[in-house]
Amino acid sequence: MGSGVGHIFRLCVASLGDLFFPRFCLVCGAKLDIGERHLCPRCADDIPFTYFWGWDGNPAEQRLAEAHVEKACSLFFYRRDSDYSSLIHQFKYGGDIPLGRRLAGMLAGEMAASGRFADIDAVVPIPLHPLKKFRRGFNQSDIIARELAVALGAAFEPRLIRRRRFTRTQTRTADRRRNMAGAFAVNEKALRRLRSAGTFHILLVDDVLTTGSTIAAAASVLPSDFRLAAATLACVE
Ligand SMILES: [Zn+2]
Fold first, then answer.
1. Are 107 and 55 members of one domain?
2. How far is the CA of 25 from the centre of ligand 1 (A)?
3. What is the rounded radius of gyration, in angstroms, for the C-alpha atoms of the chain?
C-alpha cells in the first residue's frame, strides 16, 4: 500500500473509531478531533506548568532540602479541585500508560533543555509495594522514569531501591512521615554495581510530590556520597 493510500486508510479507520467511540478531553470534556489525544488544544495550552526546571531553589527543592536532594522539578501544579488532577488519576488508576508517557515526555524535554539535570547518571523510580504493583498492573513511577532516563541519557535503574513493607495511604502529614520511615531499603548488589560503574548522581522519580516524605524516605537509604535530584509529574501546591 502506498503511503498516500495508507494515510487515507488510517484516517478512515480513525474517523470510524471517532464515530463509534468518541473521545473527550480529560480536562474540559470537549469532544476531541481526529489526531488529538487526552487533551483538547486549549487545555493542552493551559496546563499549569511549574517551570521548576529552570528555577534554582524552587518550592520542590525547598520541600526536599532536608533529604539532601540538590535539584528537583515537577511538570505541573496539582490541585485536588482542579480539572487537571484528572490527568494523574487517568494515568495512575485508569491505567492510561500512553498518557503517562506523554506527560513524562513533556517533563523530560523541559529537564533536558534546562541543562540543570545534564549530569544525572541514573534514574531510579520510587518502587511500589509488590502487592500494590500486582493490583495496579504497573508502577507509574517506572513509566515516568524510563522516559526521563532516555531524554537525559542516563541509565534506568528500577532495582536500586526496594519497598520493605506495605504502607497504607495516609493523608495527614504526621501520619505520612511516620508511615514512610523505614519503608525502603537499598539493594546492595545494585549499589555495588553502580559504584563500580562510577554512578553517583541519582534522579529519584515519583508521580506526585506532596510533602516530600516519600522521596525523603527513599533518599535516606542511599549512601551520603551520592548526589541526589528528584522529579515528579505533579506537585501539590
Ligand atoms: Zn479541554
1. yes
2. 5
3. 19
Check whether residue 39 and residue 53 sit in a common domain. Answer: no
Contact by Cβ (8 Å): 219, 67: yes
Element (H, E) at 99: helix 97-114
61 & 16 share domain: no
User: Distance from the CA of 59 to the center of ligand 1, in angstroms?
Assistant: 28
CA of 20 from ligand 1 middle (Å) equals 20
pLDDT at 1: 46
Residue type, 203: L
What confidence tens digit (pLDDT) does each residue in 137-166 have?
Answer: 999 999 999 999 999 999 999 999 999 865
Ligand 1 centroid–CA 205 distance in Å is 27
Question: Could you give the residue ranges of the DSSP H alpha helices within 46-126?
Answer: 59-63, 85-92, 97-114
How far, in Å, from the CA of 32 to the mean position of ligand 1?
8
Do 110 and 138 touch, CB atoms closer than 8 A?
no
Residue indicated by cell numbers 526546571? 53
- In the chain, the number of structural domains is 2
Separation of alpha carbons 163 and 178, rounded Å: 15
Mean pLDDT of 160-189: 75
Residue 87 Cα, ligand 1 centroid: separation in angstroms? Answer: 11
Q: How many A from CA of 84 to the centre of ligand 1? A: 10
